[in-house]
Amino acid sequence: MAHVIRIGPYHPLQEEPASFLLTVEGERVIDIDVQLGYIHKGLERLAEQRTYDMVPLLLERICGICSATHSINFCHAVEDILGLAVPPRARYIRTIVGELERIHSHLLWVGLAGHFIGYETVFMWAWKYREPVLDMYEQLTGHRQNSALPQVGGVRRDLPEQAFPEVRRTLDALDGQVEMLTGAVLDDPVLAARLSGVGVLTAEQALAYGVVGPTARASGLATDVRADEPYAAYPELDWKVITRSEGDVFAKAVVRLLELKESIGLVRQAMEKLPPGPINAGPLHVPRGEGIGRYEAPRGEDVHYVRSNGTNMPERVKVRAPSYVNIPSFRASCIGQTISDVTLTLAACDPCYSCTERMAVVRDAGGGSEITFSDLVRLGREKTLRIARELGRKPDLDLEIG
Amino acid sequence: MGHVIEHMFLFLVFPGLLFTAAVGFLLQWGDRRLAAMLQWRVGPPPAQPVWDVAKLLGKEVIVPEQAWRRGFLALPFVALSAAALAATLIWSAALQIDVAPVGDLIVVLYVLAIPALAVMLGAACSGNPLGAVGASREMKLILAYELPFVIAIVVAVFQRRTLGEEVVSASTLSLSGLVEFQKEVGAIIARPSGLLAFIVALLCCHAKLGLVPFDMAEAECEIGEGAHIEFSGALLGLLRLTRALLTAALPVLLVTVFWGGMEQSAGGGAVFLLKVLLIVVIHVLIRSTSPRVRIDQAMRFFWGPATLLALIALLLAGSGA
Q: Hey, which of A14, A31, B80, B170 would disulfide with A23, CB 3.0 to 4.6 Å?
């Protein structure tokens, strides 16, 4: 007998708001459905109410991990409208920031992957190693997470070169730690037994679903925007695209671990070769037009679309984060597996729900009532007053309801 | 009447419920503290396991609408009483309090299976689909580990030694009989058959305690605590208390059956405690260095290598090794 079990809306793995409906027969999953719409933030709409200089600061907040990704990519899209070449120093700075972000994002995933399979020691160790990466980020940009560096035409501030020696030392230490972690994962027979052959996505399926990033590279597709449509300093640096052919969860872990090493090398080289010169193109006027930005986020290709009407604010900003194209591939990789394997497979593409979030429209839900913004304000105030009344104290709001 | 009060005291206070719970909480704290050290964390203060349960006991119990109410409410008590009874019998043998019935080894094995069964039935009563998945995993796990566990214990029963001209055999189904036997001829674990059986029994206890890699019945990341998912407040507290009792009772059982039990002296008590601690440390090391396996992998492990090892131990014991 088939019945439906629900993973979510508070995802038990990632403590994020997404819901997966698994139709199961015993432990075998025979169908999967994804429900989003729990945390729509309306950031695209908000971006249309900010000037070009302000939007990158807003888009940093799309994702808790990929902050540089979205702000740099918005700049890519606007620079596409302008047909602008960014100064070399700014390109290198963007590379350093972007790769540090990839390092901490991949370490975060390795830790979470350990947590998903009940291997808490890996969880704690990976996150312990991630901490100095965030410290480096802070030393270089002033903040652990949101650098506020990217700006249309370059970057907002220069990197403090006096911090480079210490960052290099931290990178050296990190190199050894990542090597140890990679070795520990690759050589662990129990991990291999648990993860190999689980949630296989073949190269054909990966192509058909159009998956991106490590999810595609673990299935043998060598797709990487950094190599396919080079931006920032990547063409001038020495690195390689990591691929694996197995397509299972183990391959996805291996790809990410090996990419960590490439990213550490990239940060080192970019700091070494950091050219002198201006860090941005100065004040700009964005003409009428359309632009596309592509960027290799830690989870895969991120695409931004910007339409300008000649004013100082974008007319339309559209974000397509990598998880949005990776999540549908669950239909290929999950059906037929057991619940234990499906939960691992769901996590293996490192889904980011805030990036993926779309507005959910409920059609014909009955009632036909529509709630406007002023209704929401009124309901909120009523609730505040009711709580105050129940607690028997004066309301914090000094407002009339009307 | 005095007899009843004495037995109630044995069951509820010493060495049963209260005493075992206290030891169990201490061992759980040690377990958590050691795991924390391995994971670069600080770990909880000594009283944390007590507070965890005390907090739960004071909280509201929510019974799901679709649950079978009576079963759902009763089964945590069944689990707890079974664990307390098993603990009483095991400690009585270890401390050589002369109350145990003849053949208490069989009773202990039987009673030790009840907490897992109760949790499984409770989950089935809850009416939650994730609980049902947890229950089915728990059931498969019980089926998997009980066979090698029983064989491993039987190895101890089949031990025999040649002392000069005389052949001494354990051939007893009483825990205190096994302790007597080991006093005479030395610990069972010192022989190859005993060591093998001890290892198998230890792994089965690991699964009985629901520790990683055999925690798939709860698997918080997959099925959100699975079998425990609908239990809340005091009921969940009782299940936690059951777990604490087993945390103390199972290592004591292993030491009693395989490792000579307790010498009746101050030093003997200390050595006994060290042996129990060593078993807890092994549990912590196993659970900190392995990922959760799938239920089919666990079953294959217990029915395959584990049972095979237990059978080899049995053959060795039969041939006197």
A: A31
Q: Which residues of A touch B (CB under 8 A)?
A: 3-5, 12-13, 24, 26-27, 114-125, 128, 190-191, 193-194, 338-341, 343
**Domain residue extents for chain B:** 2-318
Residue entry with tokens 């029963």: B157
Does residue A401 register a pLDDT over 60? no
Count Cβ atoms within 10 A of the Cβ of residue A144 and give its class: 0-12 exposed, 13-18 middle, 19 or more buried. Answer: middle
Flag whether residue B213 sits within 8 Å of chain A, measured between CB atoms: yes
Sheet holding A300-308, edge to edge: A289-297, A300-308, A314-320
Contact A117, A285 (CB under 8 A): no
pLDDT for B240-252, tens place per residue?
999 999 999 999 9
Q: Which residues of A touch B129 (CB under 8 A)?
A: 3-5
The encoded tokens of residue A6 equal: 């629900």
B226, B219 contact by CB (below 8 A): yes
* Sign of the four-CA dihedral B194, B198, B199, B201: positive
Domains of chain A: 43-351 (1.10.645.10)
Mean pLDDT of the region B202-222: 86
Mutate to test the interface with B, among A112, A334, A339, A343 (most CBs of B within 10 A): A339
Q: What does the block give as tokens for B65?
A: 């609408």
The pLDDT confidence band at residue B16, using thresholds 50, 70 and 90, is confident
Determine how β-strand B166-169 pairs with β-strand A28-35.
Answer: unpaired
